């Protein structure tokens, strides 16, 4: 059975908005875009490279994240990450998306994610689906208990404002699997579903 793996950069206060660039996502007047770069180091890059190699499959992206990636990564010629993303199948979850997608190996996944994603898993039982960013999609999958594994890169930083991963979701029980701390202080931690859900 394929797994759905959500990979997220987070601050200590749970913010996931715009880790990559200043102009990545300025909704609600968010002024802190690009916050993840200050903690990037070779140790983090090597870990993520191993993780992506071990979980070969398709990327499952929300529409906003896909459009951001498609506007940036195809222009980064000679970058190993860009080359890997070009070759990877990219499935874009959107209720309204239609027509051809310009970035190679990209297709639409129409309909409601809670219905469409389980069907996608049934059609492709031997391939993992890796979600990068895509906060609204992740929260939708969370609400329907469809995420099997979480890989969080927790940065030693508190922002105080910004969109948070777990805004508006019910309690979720998780089981810790692995934790690594990089030299730059990023806690890379893996959880799988199955822990105790109660808050009492």
UniProtKB/TrEMBL annotation:
**A Pfam family:** RibD_C
User: Which superkingdom, per the lineage?
Assistant: Bacteria
Tell me which residues make up the Bacterial bifunctional deaminase-reductase C-terminal domain. Answer: 5-187
- Coiled-coil positions: none
Question: PANTHER family, per this entry?
Answer: BIFUNCTIONAL DEAMINASE-REDUCTASE DOMAIN PROTEIN (PTHR38011:SF2), DIHYDROFOLATE REDUCTASE FAMILY PROTEIN (AFU_ORTHOLOGUE AFUA_8G06820) (PTHR38011)
Tell me the protein's name. Dihydrofolate reductase family protein
